[in-house]
Design goal:
The complex is a heterodimer of chains A (583) and B (212).
Chain A (H helix, E strand, L loop, with lengths): L1 H19 L6 H16 L3 E6 L7 E6 L16 H8 L4 E3 L10 H9 L4 E8 L4 E9 L8 H45 L6 H16 L3 E7 L5 E6 L10 H8 L4 E3 L10 H9 L5 E8 L2 E9 L10 H73 L6 H29 L6 E4 L1 H18 L3 E6 L6 E4 H18 L9 E9 L3 E8 L6 H4 L17 H11 L3 E6 L5 E8 L7
Parallel strand pairs in A: 12-14
Antiparallel strand pairs in A: 1-2, 1-5, 3-4, 4-5, 6-7, 6-10, 8-9, 9-10, 11-13, 14-15, 15-17, 16-17
Helix pairs in contact in A: 1-2, 1-5, 5-6, 5-9, 9-10, 9-11, 9-12, 9-14, 11-12, 12-14
Chain B lengths: L7 E5 L3 H13 L3 E5 L2 H5 L8 E6 L7 H10 L6 E5 L4 H9 L4 E4 L4 H33 L3 H10 L5 H8 L3 H14 L5 H11 L10
Helix pairs in contact in B: 6-8, 7-8
The chains are: A alpha+beta (583), B alpha/beta (212).
């Protein structure tokens, strides 16, 4: 008997020691193994740990002999009012036979009898704080005695179990907090580097991550436009059409949090919303207004589908949603800001392009009238030839092929003009800088001739391609050439030359230089020439070089101007070479 | 002397399509055509003898059409010019017309339009050619006169009588009468009025003569 007690002693201390080192994720399994060992040792039929959780729903860890059914929870006040009360007070409930139960435990006795429980010992689990759960052992096959010493040993075991459960609770909530922090910081990083073009994709991705984290079914981000309407919404599972939820949308726009766990609690004015929620099988929902700069920029909405969400989690969820809300609010306001900047930039470029066009209109009209003239001459000559008695078909054929060629020339002029004045989005593609320079040179050819300037191209062969927007980079070269031509306006003395040069700039960049033999740049203007609305010309807008800078900046390029040693100035811009390894 | 050769039209335009097509049109219309791609190239060609005109592009690299016209005027070369331009501005047009251009046409130009202008330009050139050759002929006759005859010629066309001329030159009236007959004969003038017209054409003046 002593030997057996010693063995039990040893088992208990081994179990207690072992539980201390079990990682939080394996605690349930370890407890189940411990229960099995104790049950086997004691020769009872069943051992259970019922873990209390906030919200009343518990988790059960149990081990029972094969063939035994599930036993009810002893904290169930309807079946076991007396037992629950005892345990709640911190007392141990213990009986060898149901007869031992006092008179006031009549209900409990009936329940135990129905379950065919002969003997039972139930110990409250507490680690100094509120009750964490109940540890109980039961015997159904035969009655069993619970000597005081054994109960005392089981109490020690219950303490070991309780501290292990407590550790698990703390570690899990810590892990959960860490996981949340990680999610939050990763989302903010993503959003802070987000360009407007990637926004939709990244928001979808972020919503998925948040939905997974919160363990909810659906998530939506709503963006409100400045005039108070809805600008846009992103959703997982495509369910959030804000038109269907007028009440919630209005509340959000008003800056209120909308939260409910059952549709019945919604007020009467939310009738439309209620219907939509029902149609979408939404039960509990949380909707959070997103604030930026004192205004509501959007809303963040999460909801579960069929499953009811425990009310008690709401506080934590609210806190998490608040933090997530800030991240999403920042993303929305950043996006709106960036779009605004982008729009301004495009507007600016467009203005620049149109004004450059104004300057070029005369020479382009000239360019277009050449093929039109030739076509008319040729066509009328053909008519003339066809009216003759002996038609010279060979001559007519030659004329027709010239007409076709000139028509194509005219089309090419119009096409280039159209590309130049097109106000489009940026389209980045691998580009040959020499090709761009060549196209602009073609465009300004007649302007250059009329101004009696000699223009030459010095293009480095085999340049690596750069990643950029063709039209915008054409604009850069065009503006720089226009600028150079302006500098060569009479009364500038000496030969009037303009050189466009391309070259490699190290391994990772390509540089384009536009060099003129004009009057050069006054040192006092040097600092400011790339600023908007700064001009040294009487009839200039001061936009040309500012546009150049905007575009070069948008291409991660560098721009600089310098006076030449022997008169005139050179403006260089450098663009990074397209990185083949970038994905 | 009449020539049977077709009138000559020069085309000066830097654009190859325009140059070729206009050349083709004019050749089909029966003209002899010469094409030039720059004003300088055209200036290098020796002046044409017979009736001719030039179709000139206003905007050209190097020497422009207007500058070419100026050079021709300065050199005193006879040339009927039809300007063709893609872009009309008032100062250029005024200058071109004042300097004697026949027409200034907007590109693209219809066949009838360019042919009408060319016909006008050629008519004007033919007329000025005729005037030029008549003057040359009169000059040739003047060159056959002796210095004394030239003096008499100059005084006769101012309307003086033989007697007055004799007094002025310190010669007898009879001698003047002989000189006068010789002048009429050499200048192939049938009447005094005709002689006056010939004098007008070449501008005969006697140095130091006094007019009353």
């Amino acid at each position: 008997m002593l030997k057996e007690r010693l063995r039990f002693e040893t088992l208990l201390s081994e179990l207690s020691a072992g539980l201390i080192h079990v990682p939080a994720g394996s605690i349930d399994a370890a407890l189940e193994r411990a229960l099995q060992q104790v049950v086997t040792f004691l020769g009872v039929d069943r051992g259970t740990v019922d873990v209390e959780q906030e919200g009343g729903r518990g988790v059960r860890i149990a081990w029972a002999l094969p063939g035994l059914g599930e036993s009810p929870h002893v904290m169930d006040a309807e079946q076991f009012p007396w037992t629950a009360k005892q345990l709640g007070r911190g007392d141990i409930v213990c009986f060898s036979q149901v007869d031992e139960l006092p008179a006031e435990a009549a209900t409990d006795r009936t329940s135990y009898e129905r379950m065919a429980t002969h003997s039972k010992v139930a110990l409250p689990l507490s680690a100094g704080g509120p009750m964490l759960g109940v540890l109980s052992f039961g015997s159904v096959r035969s009655p069993r005695a619970w000597p005081a010493e054994l109960v005392e040993r089981l109490r020690l075991l219950s303490e070991a179990f309780a501290s292990t459960l407590e550790r698990k609770r703390v570690e899990l909530s810590l892990a959960e907090r860490l996981r949340f922090e990680k999610l939050l910081s990763s989302l903010s990083t993503t959003f802070s580097h987000l360009s407007a073009g990637d926004f939709n994709r990244e928001v979808q991705h972020a919503l998925h991550r948040v939905v997974d984290f919160l363990g909810v079914a659906r998530g939506s981000l709503i963006e409100f436009s400045r005039d108070g309407g809805t600008a846009h919404s992103w959703a997982i599972e495509e369910w959030m059409d804000v038109g269907e939820f007028p009440w919630m949308t209005a509340r959000l726009q008003h800056g209120d949090v909308v939260s409910f766990s059952a549709l019945e609690t919604l007020p009467d004015e939310a009738a439309v919303d209620r219907q939509s929620y029902r149609a979408h099988r939404v039960k509990p929902q949380m909707a959070m207004p997103l604030m930026a700069g004192g205004t509501v920029v959007g809303g963040l909405v999460f909801s579960t589908g069929e499953a009811e969400r425990p009310q008690s989690d709401e506080l934590v969820l609210m806190q998490q949603l608040h933090l997530l809300g800030e991240v999403f609010a920042n993303a929305l306001s950043r996006k709106q800001g960036e779009l605004e900047t982008q729009r301004l930039r495009q507007e600016l470029t467009h203005i620049g392009r149109v004004s450059a066009m104004g300057e070029l209109t005369a020479s382009l009209a000239h360019e277009l009238k050449q093929p039109l003239s030739a076509i008319l001459y040729n066509a009328e000559t053909a008519q003339d030839l066809l009216a003759a008695d002996a038609v010279d078909l060979e001559a007519v054929r030659e004329i027709l092929s010239d007409i076709v060629a000139d028509d194509k020339r005219a089309t090419a002029v119009i096409e280039r003009l159209r590309i130049l004045i097109k106000k489009g989005d940026l389209e980045f593609a691998p580009l040959d800088v020499n090709e761009i320079v060549g196209e602009v040179a073609w465009l300004v050819k007649s302007d250059v001739l009329i101004r009696n300037v000699s223009m030459s191209l010095e293009l480095a062969p085999d340049l690596p391609s750069v990643l950029g927007d063709r039209v915008q980079l054409q604009q850069v070269v065009l503006n720089l050439v226009q600028n150079g031509l302006e500098a060569l306006r009479p009364p500038s003395a000496g030969p009037r030359t303009l050189v466009i040069r391309t070259a490699r700039d190290g391994a990772a960049a390509v540089t384009v230089a536009v060099q003129d033999s004009g009057t050069g740049i006054d040192e006092k203007d040097m600092e400011r020439i790339f600023e908007p609305l700064y001009t040294t010309k009487a009839d200039g807008l001061g936009m040309g070089l500012a546009i150049v800078r905007t575009i070069v900046d948008a291409h991660d390029g560098r721009l600089r101007a310098a006076n030449n040693e022997h008169g005139g100035a050179t403006v260089h811009f450098t663009l990074p070479v397209e990185r083949k390894d970038a994905c | 002397m009449l020539t049977t050769a077709a009138p000559l039209v020069f085309v000066v335009d830097d654009n190859p399509s325009v140059r070729t097509s206009l050349g083709r049109l004019l050749a089909a219309a029966g003209y002899a055509v010469e094409l030039f791609e720059s004003a300088r190239e055209f200036l290098a060609r020796e002046p044409a003898e017979g009736p001719c005109c030039v179709v000139l592009d206003v905007r050209m690299p190097g020497l422009t059409g207007i500058e070419l016209q100026e050079a021709l005027v300065t050199a005193g070369r006879r040339m009927s010019i039809v300007f063709v331009t893609g872009h009309v501005d008032v100062p250029t047009s005024v200058k071109a017309m004042r300097d004697g251009a026949v027409d200034l046409l907007m590109k693209p130009v219809a066949r009838e339009e360019i042919l009408a202008s060319i016909a006008r330009a050629l008519a004007r050139d033919t007329e000025s050619l005729r005037r030029h050759s008549r003057i040359a002929a009169i000059r040739q006759r003047v060159e056959t006169l002796t210095p004394r005859e030239i003096q008499v010629f100059a005084l006769v066309v101012t309307g003086r009588l033989n007697k007055q001329i004799g007094t002025e030159l310190g010669v007898g009236e009879k001698t003047i009468k002989v000189h006068r007959a010789r002048v009429m004969d050499k200048m192939q003038a049938g009447s005094l009025a005709e002689l006056v017209r010939l004098a007008d054409a070449v501008g005969v003046v006697v140095p130091g003569s006094v007019t009353s």
